[in-house]
Specification:
The chain is an alpha/beta fold. It folds into 2 domains: 2-160, Rossmann fold, CATH 3.40.50; 188-467, pyruvate-formate lyase- activating enzyme (Alpha-Beta Horseshoe). The protein has 17 helices and 17 strands. The strands form 4 sheets. It has a 7-stranded mixed sheet, sandwiched between helices. The chain has a 6-stranded parallel sheet with strand order 8-11-12-13-14-15. Strands 9-10 form a two-stranded antiparallel ribbon. The chain starts with a strand and ends with a helix.
Length: 470
């Protein structure tokens, strides 16, 4: 079967506003995983990433006409759910091709999307084998009710099949089909999280056992990871096949399994893999031995969610860390020469003027190479979205789907105003970056022309933030 897979309609402007030129643009990893499984089974696949390479509906229709797919898959994100429905409706109206929807928004709100006539099928949960089985059942004319993990329409009714169990062994999956996307070198994480292109983003585990209330945990709280041998083989694959000069492990908590991360580091050194790499980590999973092994294997930066400078707020949001632990682990990282990017939020459900200032002061006191601070976002499917009305005013519009949103906010804590939160957001950025110490930290990381170009883009965006009106 010929399948066209389309990444959801979420443009850089939609996600980042006037900061779209420094935003994070990652490969459509889920579609590449789907494509790999489908190709391995003998199907022909085309991927269109309308996030990184936006297309008008007219241009998209021309692509459909040229490829002539027998089934179209569309990934749907909450921030772009309305646009995805419009896209599916237009395609269905013109071509009549069956459309299957999947992705984060489908995982959270399947019942809502199941009512949309533009989608013939929904794939919920992990989609690799549900989509493959759906395709093969359609081809053979088999019984759709036997396909786990899908919704479909029959005689005007929505049929919900039993869910598909989570994959126990992620190593059973082939490597993502990065060859199906346009120009791996056009993708990169945030400007502060890589040194050189091409940088290839990898996701080598799924799920997170922690219970932070602001997270929607679409992969569930059950953690599963690829084996160390698979991970290192994948790194070698993207170096050899796609010219990767850097790798970013962009998953909820790369170092959760201590034995696995130590084995990954050992194998990378053993096989002579010398490219730099970064990872997203939970600070509670790190110790001195793990940090040293990561540094020795090429890790130059870790990103970590710190979220607040108030222990009271950290306890409330169920963040499994306190300020003392943050200081201790960041000290270990700094001692080993691993740079640190810290993530913070303001506007938490129980936020006050005092706790916001605590967060700003705490961020300034830490040995951070870089900092990202965002405004509280009520992620669909999160506990915070469920209970936010008890703590302040809410706006549940899916168009407010980004912590970069200016103007309207999704949540304002009782006793504060949107204008105050946005002003403190700007203040936090200025207070953190406009310091001689921070200038020196950033300057010490300059290695060549590419760094200078990235810093120029960052400085330009910095002034957009500080000059912006709430």
């Amino acid at each position: 079967m010929k399948l066209l897979l389309i990444s959801g309609a979420v443009s850089g402007v939609k996600r980042y506003g006037n900061l779209e030129d420094i935003g994070s643009y990652l490969p459509p990893y889920g579609l590449c995983c789907l494509g790999a499984v489908l190709e391995k089974a003998g199907h022909e696949v085309m991927i269109i990433d309308s996030v990184r390479h936006p297309l008008s509906l007219l241009a998209l229709a021309e692509k459909v006409k040229q490829f002539q797919p027998e089934l179209i898959g569309l990934s749907v994100y909450s921030i772009g759910a309305n646009q995805a429905i419009e896209t599916a409706t237009a395609i269905k109206s013109e071509f009549g091709i069956p459309i299957v929807a999947g992705g984060p928004h489908v995982m959270v709100f399947p019942e809502d999307l199941a009512q949309c006539d533009a989608f013939d099928y929904l794939v919920t949960g992990e989609g690799e084998y549900s989509l493959l089985e759906l395709v093969e059942t359609i081809e053979s004319g088999g019984d759709l009710e036997r396909v786990q993990g899908i919704y479909f329409h029959r005689d005007g009714e929505v049929v919900k099949n039993e869910p598909r169990p989570l994959l126990d062994n992620l190593d059973d999956l082939p490597y993502p089909a990065f060859h199906l996307i346009k120009g791996i070198e056009t993708y990169a994480p945030h400007q502060m999280v890589y040194r050189r292109k091409p940088v290839v983003t990898l996701i080598t585990s799924r799920g997170c056992p922690f219970q932070c209330i602001f997270c929607n945990s679409v992969w569930t709280h059950r953690w599963r990871g690829n084996s160390a041998a698979y991970v290192v083989g994948l790194v070698e694959h993207v170096i050899e096949e796609f010219g990767a000069r850097e790798v970013s492990f962009h998953e909820d908590t790369f170092a959760l399994n201590r034995r696995r991360v130590l084995e990954i580091c050992r194998l990378m050194k053993e096989r002579g893999i010398r490219i730099p790499w970064t990872a997203t980590v939970n600070l509670t999973t790190l110790d001195r031995e793990v940090i040293k092994a990561m540094k020795d294997a090429g890790c130059w930066l870790v990103s970590c969610g710190i979220e607040s400078g108030s222990d009271e707020v950290l306890r409330f949001i169920h963040k499994p860390v306190d300020k003392e632990t943050v200081r201790r682990v960041l000290g270990w990282l700094s001692d080993e020469g691993i740079r640190i990017r810290g993530y913070f939020m303001i506007g938490h459900l129980i936020e006050t003027r005092e706790t916001i200032q605590e967060t700003i002061d705490f961020a300034r006191s830490l040995p951070l190479y870089s900092m990202n601070i965002s405004v509280m976002y009520l992620a669909p499917g999160s506990k915070a979205r469920e209970i936010a009305h008890e703590y302040g005013s809410t706006n549940m519009s899916l168009d407010i789907g980004s912590s970069y949103q200016r103007g309207n906010l999704g949540f304002v804590p009782r006793g504060l105003t949107a204008e105050y939160i946005q002003e403190m957001h700007r203040k936090a950025i200025v207070d953190f970056f406009v310091r001689p110490r921070q200038f020196m930290r950033l300057a010490s990381a300059i290695r060549g022309p590419e760094d200078i170009r990235r810093y120029y883009r960052l400085v330009r965006s910095f002034f957009k933030v500080v000059r912006a009106k709430a």
